[in-house]
Write a structure and sequence with these properties.
The protein is an alpha/beta fold. The protein is built from 12 helices and 7 strands. Helix 2 links the parallel strand 2 and strand 3.
């Protein structure tokens, strides 16, 4: 059985969407779960359709939490084998195609936004640029996305097993990101939704939507824990250096510096692992050894970048050093989330 979740506040013409759903899924055993407020009850009762379920909730809650409530209802109350989420009327006709992909063995199917490359007005080109930038950030920030075809989108279908045993939380505005990062999927398919320029076409991407998506992306990615660990490592490094130089007689600076660096590296690993231990793919000791190697690569990257920028391109030393630090952190993040935490 298919359970289709419709967050009512995302839909402008709910009656039209329900009519199109009934037509598109005419030969498929399905139920539609509308998540919204009690004011929708009169309209739904008037339609007299047994396959429509209204899940009421108070105003002011996020769309992500609405979808989570709908998924729980589909899985627990309706015992649906497949769950789909629809966010707009013009995405209904893609559902049969998405279901075909699931029948082929995929357990997660995402309708991903793709963009026309030519013949666009300026505003649409900006949206395309925003969308492609988000796709790139997803590949960088989410380890599980790097080796999959997943791209930016909101409509998706999945086997119920994908969220079985997974604690779903409304991390930001886009629940799909949480499913991608924490769900039990292993085979994903992408259905393209080509965004071009049509009269009356509702923009799929705007600055507000992009910012909301980026916020959700930061919440589900390992970036914040690793960034916190890096900042704490700087503090630990300087504090240990100060302790050694001020309280241990005859301690040379070069020895103190090595000890401080080593302790800060261990500190960074421990703090990162406290946040990401459930994502660690190697034993803890092996992870610590690998982390030392990653930090060494990061230091080489930082040092090499700073010197190339300063001596070859004649860039200000502070700017060169700062750029080197950013690239060094990027290498640490990329390699550690590829080899240790994924």
């Amino acid at each position: 059985m298919l359970g289709v979740i419709v967050p009512a506040e995302k839909i402008k013409n709910l009656f039209s969407l329900l009519t199109r759903l009934e037509k598109a899924l005419n030969e498929i055993d399905h139920a539609v779960v509308i998540v919204g407020n009690k004011s929708l009850k009169i309209m739904i009762d008037g339609m007299n359709k047994g396959f429509i379920h209204l899940l009421t909730r108070s105003r002011g809650q996020s769309v992500a939490s609405a979808i989570i409530d709908g998924m729980k209802y589909c899985a627990d109350t309706l015992s649906a084998d497949i769950i789909a989420v629809i966010n707009a009327e013009d995405e209904v006709e893609k559902l049969p195609l998405m279901l075909n992909k699931i029948e082929e063995g995929y357990n997660l199917v995402v309708e991903a936004y793709t963009f026309m490359k030519k013949g666009q007005p300026f505003g649409q080109k900006i949206r395309a640029l925003i969308g492609e930038s988000i796709n790139l950030l997803m590949k960088i920030l989410l380890p599980r996305v790097r080796h999959s075809p997943i791209m930016y989108g909101e409509t998706f279908a999945m086997r119920t097993e994908v969220i079985k045993g997974v604690e779903m939380k409304p991390r930001g505005s886009n629940i799909l990101l949480g499913i991608i990062e924490y769900g039990n999927w292993n085979k994903v398919a992408v259905i393209p939704y080509i965004i071009g320029y049509n009269v009356g076409e509702k923009p799929k991407i705007n600055v507000r939507a992009a910012l909301g998506f980026l916020f959700s992306l930061l919440l589900v990615s390992p970036l914040i824990p690793i960034l916190i660990a890096g900042i704490s490592g700087i503090i630990v490094n300087l504090f240990i250096l100060w302790l050694l130089l001020h309280f241990i007689p005859f301690m040379e600076y070069y020895i103190s510096s090595v000890i401080a660096i080593e302790i800060s590296v261990i500190n960074n690993f421990i703090i990162s692992d406290l946040f990401l231990c459930n994502k660690r793919i190697v034993p803890r000791i092996m992870g610590l050894v690998m982390y030392h190697g990653i930090v060494a690569i990061s230091i080489i990257t930082q040092y090499g970048t700073a010197n190339i920028l300063h001596y070859l391109l004649h860039i200000n030393p502070i700017t060169s050093q700062f750029t080197g630090i950013l690239l060094g952190f990027f290498m640490t993040y990329l390699l550690s989330t590829e080899k240790i935490w994924r």
